[in-house]
Amino acid sequence: MSEQDYSRFDLETAIATWRQFHAHRRVFRKEDLDELERHLRDHTAHLVARRLGEQAAFREAVQRLGDLDGGEAEYGKVYWGKLRRRREITAELTWRITLLTSYFTIALRNYKRQKLYAFINVFGLALGMAAFWLILQQVTYEWSYDAFHVDKASLYRVHYRQYKEGVLEIDNAAAVPAVGPAMKDNFPQVVEYARLVAFHPVVVASGTRRYREEKIRGVDPSFLRMFTFPLLKGDAATALAAPNTAVITETTALKYFGTGDPIGKVIVLDGTREVEIRGICGDVPPTSHLTFDFLISLDQHKRGKGGDDDWYSYDFYTYIQLAPGADPTALQDAFNSWVARERNAGWEQERLRQTFDLEPITRLHLYSHRMQELESGAQGDGRTVYFLLVIGVLVLTISWANYINLTTARSTGRAKEIGVRKVLGAHGAQLKGQFLMEAALLNGIAAAIGVGLAWAAAPWFERLTGHPLHTLQPSYGGVWLGTILVGALLSGSYPALVLARLKPVTALQGYTRSITGGIRLRSSLVTFQFVISMILIAGTFIVYRQLAHLRAKDLGVQLEHMLIVSGPGISGVDSVYTHTLQAFKTELLKLGAVRQVTVSSSVPGREIHWMNTITRASTHPSGVERGQLGDKAIFIVGVDPDYVPAYAIELLAGRNFSEAFRLDQDALLLNRAATRLLGYTSPQEAIGQRVDFRGNDRVVIGVVDDYNHVSPKTAVDPVVFTYQPAARGYFSAKVDPSDVHQTVEQVKRLYLSFFPGNPFDYYFLDEAFNHQYQADLHFGRFFGAFAGLAILVACLGLFGLAAFAAEQRTKEIGIRKVLGASTSSIVGLFSTDFLKLVGLAFLVAVPLAYFAMQRWLEGFAYRIEIGPGVFLLTGTLVLLIALIPVSYQAIRAALADPVKSLRYE
Amino acid sequence: MLPKPLVAASFEPLVLALLGRGETYGYEIIQRIQELSDGRIVYSANRLYPLLHDLENRNLVSATWHHDGPGPGRKYYRLTKKGAQAMAQAKRDWLDVHGLLARLWGPDVSLAT
After folding, report:
1. How far apart are CA A708 and CA A691, in angstroms?
2. Complex ipTM, two decimals?
3. What is the span of the domain harbouring residue B66?
4. What is the pLDDT of residue A71?
5. A568 CA to centre of own chain
6. Cα gap A292→A204, rounded to integer Å
7. Which of A53, A146, A163, A902 has the highest local Cβ count within 10 Å?
8. How many other C-beta atoms are found inside a 10 Å radius of the C-beta of residue A205?
9. What whole-number percentage of chain A has pLDDT above 90?
């Protein structure tokens, strides 16, 4: 084209320019622009005819076309229709795929050029994703408890609360036998009930095979209708209908009958009760709060103790099924009012009040922590599960923050590319597409590596949590895809927005400071990462210190080298048993390796299920009389005279039981908590006092110090020790630690000869007791592992940022060096910027960690105080860790040759 | 100018009605509607053309290019058979609304009927 005279308006040039301006927008097809151009020409001509100047006419016409940028959306709406009309959809799709491929290629090229950043990005993301998925699987597993029951939404368990003189005395997982029938008979919204009784350990015999079984449950026949435990053999409707019939699990069937058919076979419980097997069900799923190996039919319509009119024996776990649409809260209220009316007379007499609560069965595993839980020990904790989920999300967020950080930091390097592409006609949407594509690609690669990491870490993770992991199920595919998409959007959209908005002129100038907001954003992201890392690290310290505190706590009882043998289920009548027991104890002590032997109804570490009421019987000088204090519920442990010395329990006042005193069967020992319960001001005061225990007159002969019978996590309950030299619960033998294996063999031989027909079950008490810390220990390790992961990811980000900052300040550092700055001063200058962020993070993290961990500690009766030491330790540790990546980059920058860095000015 | 919602609601019926009177093109539609409404309805090109293209996608109008003079040709739109049916339907609907308003505002029409 020849030289143009820019001072003169030329309509053709103006139209050509206008057209070119819109030509690159894909929604305007060629014929659309033809039509618009014709419109423009018609309008201009029309206005010129009205004696307007050509330039003014053109300008007016363009203006009246309307805002074509806004019109783009309108054209976009009909765009796909046009393509369909013209059968051009395939071409369009091909074009879009080409575009995507080009985004892809550019993304790959970028990564290749910046291997280190790509690696940090991908690796950080992969770690975060792997951690998140592992945790999510764990969490969904915990949440899936009892979800396999078809009627799970309408199934509830009835809980029992007993108030004595207005004070909550019993909050029990099991209710009383009368509740189920009472609900079903009087409330139409209760369509079914099933009661379950957990049998005490029983010796089960079938022919020559005998085992001690712990998971035997007596149930109503409706149990098999309400719950989804389908029978593999037998008829669910009749299997448990008759007295003394049983359903056993597949594994149990195999254990007793091998490959033979168990249906119709008879098993013997404790050598006395014969039960016929009528059905086999599949093994209980691991996600069931109900566990059993045997289901034995309960006597139907029995009266009296354990019968349908018994309102006192609170060991009947009661499940009800509600009619569709019934409101459990309304039912609970209505039932409690009904109970108040019906039971009023009985209550007056007993001076108590009873209430019953409904809890959906799907909540039992995580949220029901009452007395006599069926799962005791294996129960989950809803709070811990939330803690885990939060940790998982935090670690994932940290890795996303890393991505945003590194991408925006690197964007300076891309500024020129963006400028050139904009000048060549790329518009905002395309650039956004490019950056989102890069984010998606990177997230995708990270996800692939993350799956690999999660898979490789699964066995380790199982050990960490102590639960089996149902890893890499296809149903988690959606979760993975979701993580990738959300991640790509979250981490890609900020860089996309910022970079796409960049003006070409600034970009081509080699923009340096045009995004100051970006720096602030990056600083806050780094601070955020360190806040989380510090909370997790401080949390780890606190969890470990709390556990150490619990273990170091003086339990008030000696558990070391204590061999526990379950008492015989099968034995003769009481007088014969007492005799055999004495002989057995004497023989045991003759072994030499056995120092002391004691029998008791319970041993430390076992929940005491035996309770009754106690009250003061004698008039006391202070004027306290029977009745004023009322009956109190108290835990009972039956012991022989050797129990207190064998367990080295401290006697505070009075004396221990003794065989020398014939009247000791009417005597009691109390623990200190029990003396407080009964209102004695000191242990001495209780000695010689008479109490009314289970309706009998008893005398207190001694008071022992409190010791943690069940678990050091809970407070000490009031306990009364009764004289029971022929207790059948457990034998405890204090053994010489030198040759434990041989000693166990010797004890076994003796046991089997004295109590034939009973299996020999034993364990060591200290191991079993320590098992109680297992869940907390897992929690602590878990916390520690993810704290480590978080700090690792955060440091990766810091490393990348420091490298970037070093690159940015190459010239500054060069000049400083030329002017005589020392290496150390440059390193210091450089590091302070980053360490300031760590300091800020510290200030934010301390209160957050404090409150979070304080809440966790509330679950313990004996807990540590959170002092400043933990936080100082955390701060120092994080500072030292953060110094590694920062100083590495700082030293590298400081040692660079200034000649090289300043050469290109 | 008429209120925007009213302009928007009457947009398609008006364009169909105008096309019902014979073949025409975008610029002329804008001019004619402006004249006929005494300047109370003025369409902008960036709304009208997408509507015409949409009608075309729905086979309510067909288009042909006529070339005369400098620059690109003119795109003329004509109602198809289906378009005529759509216009008839639009007419019934509008007259219903019109009739109802007229009755409600009319001086001596009983609402009981």
Report:
1. 24
2. 0.87
3. 4-104
4. 66
5. 39
6. 14
7. A146
8. 19
9. 16
Which residues on chain A are in Cβ contact (under 8 Å) with B57? Answer: 78, 81-82, 84-85
What is the DSSP annotation of A65-109? T--HHHHHHHHHHHHHHHHHHTT-HHHHHHHHHHHHHHHHHHHHH
- Chain A nearest-CA distance from B107, in A, is 43
**A668 close to A721: Cβ distance less than 8 angstroms:** yes
Measured CA to CA, the distance from residue B79 to residue A66 in angstroms comes to: 26
**In chain A, where are the structural domains located?**
11-87, 174-326, 382-551+774-902, 562-767
A95 Cβ contact list (under 8 Å, min separation 6): none
Q: Could you tell me if B60 and B82 are in contact, meaning their C-beta atoms sit under 8 angstroms apart? A: yes
A772 closest CA partner among A558, A627, A607, A648: A607
Q: Is A520 exposed, middle or buried (0-12, 13-18, 19+ CB in 10 A)?
A: exposed
pTM, rounded to two decimals: 0.69
Residue A396 has pLDDT above 70, yes or no: yes
User: Which of B7, B27, B32 is the best mutation test for A, with the most CBs of A within 10 A?
Assistant: B27
Q: How many domains does chain B have?
A: 1
Name the closest residue on chain B to residue A62, using Cα atoms.
B45
Among A396, A616, A406, A412, smallest CA distance to A487 is for A396
Contact B54 A42 (CB under 8 A): no
- Contact between chains at B50 and A67 (C-beta distance less than 8 A): no
DSSP class of A724 = -
Å between A75 CA and nearest CA of chain B:
5
Q: Are strands A167-172 and A209-213 parallel, antiparallel or unpaired?
A: unpaired
Q: Which residue has the tokens 């007088």?
A: A575
- Taking the C-alpha atoms of residue A676 and residue A737, their distance in angstroms, rounded to an integer, is 38
Residues counted in chain B: 113
pLDDT digit string (tens) for A887-903? 888 888 778 777 777 77
Asked if A146 contacts A288 with a C-beta cutoff of 8 angstroms, the reply is yes
The string of DSSP codes covering A196-259 is EEEPPPEEEEETTEEEEES-EEEE-TTHHHHS---EEES-TTTTTTSTTEEEEEHHHHHHHHTT
How far is Cα A365 from Cα A682, in angstroms, rounded to an integer?
Answer: 41
Contact (CB, 8 A) for A668 and A722: yes
Q: Does B27 touch chain A (CB under 8 A)?
A: yes
Query: Shortest Cα distance from B65 to chain A (angstroms)?
Result: 9
Q: Which residue of A has its CA nearest to B53?
A: A78
> Distance, in angstroms, between A471 CA and closest chain B CA?
51
Which positions in chain B touch A15 (Cβ < 8 Å)?
71
**SS3 call for A116:** helix
Token pair 């599960």: residue? A385
pLDDT surpasses 50 at A2: no
Q: For residue B111, is it within any domain?
A: no
Return all residues near A730 (Cβ < 8 A) that are at least 6 apart: A564, A565, A566, A567, A599, A600, A601, A602, A603
Structural domain contains residue B66: yes
Nearest residue in B to A40, CA atom: B27
First to last CA, chain A: 39
User: CA–CA distance from A55 to each of A61, A62, A396, A529, A760 (Å)?
Assistant: 10, 11, 60, 59, 109
Give the residue on B whose Cα is nearest the Cα of A42.
B27
Residue A308 gets which letter from DSSP? T
Q: How far apart are CA A404 and CA A235, in angstroms?
A: 62
> Which two structure tokens, joined as six digits, stand for A238?
């009749």
Tokens standing for A786?
């993810």
3-state secondary structure A178-209: CHHHHHHHHCCCEEEEEEEEECCCEEEEECCE
Q: Is B50 on the interface with A (CB under 8 A)?
A: yes
CB burial readout A700-730, b (16+ within 10 A) else e = bbbbbbbbbbbbbbeebbbbbbbbbbbbbbb
